[in-house]
Design goal:
Enzyme class: transferase
Radius of gyration: 21 Å
GO molecular function: transferase activity
Number of helices: 16
CATH architecture: Orthogonal Bundle
Keywords: Magnesium, Metal-binding, Transferase
Number of strands: 2
Structural class: mainly alpha
EC number: 2.5.1.-
CATH class: Mainly Alpha
Shape: globular
Order of helices and strands: HHHHEEHHHHHHHHHHHH
Protein name: Polyprenyl synthetase family protein
Largest sheet: 2 strands, antiparallel
Oligomer: single chain
Strand content: under 5%
Number of domains: 1
């Protein structure tokens, strides 16, 4: 874990250096652009850096040859993978800014979301027009800026890579990831509205599809493959990392779905039952609907997505979902997918230390509380 901690520090430094260069451009244009600088730094300063870590250990899994992996990759040799890891963090920050807009979320990690920060800036400054509208407009632009910057920092790393085939493979996976995340996000907002005309027996399958493309691939599988591709991975190594990454990504998102309904707001930084108010049609909800009697199912459908749900209504829905056995089933699915992921590492054509680290991370991401 010491290696992972050092990697997180390096990614943070890489992001800080990159932002210093890019925000100097903003300052040269106008002092009025300072909020784009300040808010971008705010959204890139925290988080668990899971995507960066999976990217690094995907790279390490391929290039390790039995020596101390971290010490053997000093200086410029590590620049491409640190840059790719940083690019994933910038992409993630952009996705969160846009996701909070789509979900109309007021908070992120216990602090105001980007559109609320810009809304507050408008209100404090006494500007003309509607503060909420300004917040939405400015947050869209901040997300777009971060998205563009993620491409720039990735390309800086790829330009330093001598193996051009490896650089192209990494870039292809990054572009595929962006397409899949956008598709998954669309399917997510579609399910919140289209579920009413979909057959009941298809809703779990549709929710599982959202998990795969909105989160599972982008959170774990793609970062692993991007990192491995940088190291010149073989098809067999890529296949193994996908076999590990996809089920673990599914387990990761299922844990997130549980936290979205039952998580402690003091730990998650989000209000309790936030996903219930947002009307998320998750696998958890699909399983609950399969298990509930007709009357309870109608009540769940009626209340889910009501932004004005009271604390008592949230607690009632939490009890309903839990008591029907949906939570227990989700826990079983998480455990099966985590076990499937770890089993994929057995005798895999990957570095020994990296395999151990990936197995440890599998526990971390599936047992987390935030």
């Amino acid at each position: 874990m010491a290696h992972s901690s050092r990697l997180v520090d390096m990614v943070h430094e890489r992001i800080e250096d990159f932002l210093a260069e890019r925000t100097s451009i903003l300052r040269s244009i106008s002092a009025d652009l300072e909020p784009l600088d300040g808010f971008s730094r705010r959204f890139l300063s925290g988080g668990k850096r899971f995507r960066a870590l999976f990217c690094y250990w995907g790279w390490e899994a391929v290039r390790t040859r039995g020596f101390d992996p971290f010490e053997a990759a000093e200086g410029p040799d590590r620049f491409p993978v640190v840059s790719a890891a940083a690019a994933l963090e910038l992409f993630h920050a952009a996705a969160l800014v846009h996701d909070d807009l789509i979900d109309r979320s007021d908070t992120r990690r216990g602090l105001p979301s980007a559109h609320r920060l810009f809304e507050g800036l408008h209100a404090e400054s006494g500007w003309a027009g509607d503060a909420a509208d300004f917040g939405v407009d400015a947050a869209i632009l901040l997300g777009d800026l971060l998205l563009g910057w993620s491409d720039e920092i990735l390309d800086e790393g790829l330009d330093a890579l001598a193996d051009r085939a490896a650089a192209r493979a990494s870039r292809r996976e990054f572009m595929r990831m962006r397409t899949e995340v956008t598709a998954g996000q669309y399917l997510d907002i579609l399910e919140e509205r289209a579920w009413v005309v979909q057959p009941d027996d298809e809703q779990r399958l549709r929710a599982e599809r959202v998990i795969v493309y909105k989160s599972a691939k982008y959170s774990i599988e793609a970062p692993l493959v991007i990192g491995a591709s940088l190291a010149g991975a073989t098809e067999s190594q890529i296949r193994t990392l996908r076999d590990f990454g996809l089920p673990l990504g599914i387990a990761y998102q299922l844990r997130d779905d549980l936290l979205g309904v039952f998580g402690d707001p003091e730990v998650t930084g989000k209000p309790s039952g936030d996903d219930l108010r947002e009307g998320k049609r998750t696998v958890l909800v699909a399983i609950a609907r399969e298990r509930l009697a007709a009357g309870q199912r109608r009540l769940l459908d009626e209340l889910l997505g009501d932004a004005s749900l009271s604390a008592e209504q949230v607690r009632m829905l939490q009890r309903t979902i839990s008591e029907c056995g949906a939570v227990d089933e989700i826990e079983q699915i998480i455990a099966r997918n985590a076990a499937r992921a770890v089993a994929a590492l057995d005798d895999a054509p990957l570095g020994h230390e990296a395999r151990n680290e990936l197995a440890a991370m599998a526990k971390t991401v599936t047992r987390r509380t935030s």
